Structure formats: structure tokens, C-alpha cells
Amino acid sequence: MVNIQFTDPSIREEHQKLMPSPEERKALLNSLTVHCSFLPCTKVKARAEVKMCSRCKQARYCSQTCQKAAWKNHKKDCGEGTASQLTLKLAERALAVPKITEYIQMHAILTLKLLEDRTNAARYVINVKCRTATADLMAHVSRLVSGKESDSNAQVLLHVDAIERVPIEEAPEQLKRKLAGAKELLKTGYWEDRQPIGEDNILVSFFFTSVRQDDEGNDQVDGGADGAISSACLLPEHAMRFMADNPKSTLRSAMLGDMEVDVDEDQLRDGLNNLIRMDKTNQMRLRGYPSKVASDS
């Protein structure tokens, strides 16, 4: 697994700011843009401004009018406590952690082959496939060794199974709408934080899906295919420079010692998952309990 480190002092200082405080994390989460869950509606609002279904805590509406209009169809799916809902809730929280986004951006550079062709960012989007995994591995193994069943209500954490590219034509409609809005913003010459936009900036878009493994061990998407949890972001130029320098990672083995290897997609994904797992105090809020899936932020 890889831990991204920068040697350039100016870049390192910028990198250190990526772990938000609880207040910053909540502010970032509330500022995320959300599409109205009533499909005929095209309105987009900040997460803090939308009306949320009080039962499932997933469906979100720009107004009470849309919420009432959507109920006839939504009540068929509305419920509490499904595994995919918990996965997507944690995935949405991940969008409020810049360091998580950084790993996805680094991965996207390789997945989309942006070092060879920057225009690939306009032809593909990124699908981040996630599931939940047991947070306390030692306790989980101990139960299995003692002949007990796994604790179905034990704490779990967000786990990224795969990060794949998807042709823009096959991207979810909600992500396409978010991407269109981002492109309009680019025309103003400023990004969301009023930061000036350069001519070479790359717009990368990605969405999270919840997956489960079937009997043959293959991932099957069971939530998020609509692109409800998604983002369109500018790829920092320093990220391109970092990956262009052919960065190395040190793999440590008790038997083989230290080995220096190239940073690749597998190591970036493992590093992202390790970052989440090492957050024992749940500062990033990427842990949860199946019985409390409906609790918010």
C-alpha cells in the first residue's frame, strides 16, 4: 500500500491541509450539491438546504411539493437499514474528506491514462465501487475461531473494492447533470472557491456505487447506479506532476525486507483503504453500525 508524501515544501504544506477538522468536515458535507430525487425535477441545492425523507434518510427533495409528488413511487423502495444505504451514506461522507478525494484523483490519473492523453477526462468518468467491511478484524477473527457466527451488528467501515472508468455515454444522468453544471462554472474563469482557473485544468468526475459479492465472488452493484453520490472536481496540477515523476512506494516484508516499487492503481486503492482503517477515532466519520444506518452525518 502507498502513503502519498510530497517532498516539495509548498506542495507538502498544501497537502497537510487535506485532513479537515470536525467543523470543516461538516461544513464541506453540507455544502455538497444534491439533485432532487424526484426525477422530473432538475433542481440542484446544497445538501444542507434539501428536504430529506424522514424514514429512509436517503431520498432528498428540493421542496415539499416534489417530496409529495415522488411519494407514490418512492414508498415502494423506502425503508430502513439496508446494507447499500449504509455504504452510500459513508461514501457521501467520504466526499467531505479532501484526502480521500486526493487518492481518487491520483487513481484517476492512472485509470484514465491522463498522463498520455488529458482529453480522456472528457470521455470517461470514474466509478468508485464500495462496500462495508468489518472495522475490528481481530474481534471478527476471534469470533470465527471460537466457532461463533460473525456479529451482524458490529461496527463496519467504508471499503473501496475497485475504481474503474466508465464511458461518458454510460454515466448516470445525475452525474452528467453535475458535470454539465461544472462545465458552465468553468466558463466563468473561477471555480467554486473563487479560485482562478487555468487553461490546462482537468475536470474529473466520479460516482460511488454500493456493491456486494455474488456466490462466484464477483461484484454486483446494489445501489448508487443513479449517480446520487457523485462529484465533479478540478484535478490539481501538482497531482499530475506527482504522478508524472514516477513516484515510488516502499513495501515492507518481515521475510523479504524493504522493496521499492512503482506506485500503481492497486497500491493507491490499498492506501486509501488503509487511511480509512487507521482512522480509529472515526475523525472522518467513515465508520458506522448496520442498526444505525438512518442516523445522519
UniProtKB/TrEMBL annotation:
Listed InterPro entries: Znf_MYND
A Pfam family annotated for this UniProt entry: zf-MYND
Keyword GTP-binding: no
This protein's record includes keyword Metal-binding: yes
Residues covered by the MYND-type domain: 41-78
SUPFAM superfamilies with a match to the protein in the record: HIT/MYND zinc finger-like
Assigned keywords, A-Z: Metal-binding, Zinc, Zinc-finger
Domain of life (superkingdom): Eukaryota
GO-annotated molecular function: zinc ion binding
Name of this protein: MYND-type domain-containing protein
Protein species of origin: Athelia psychrophila
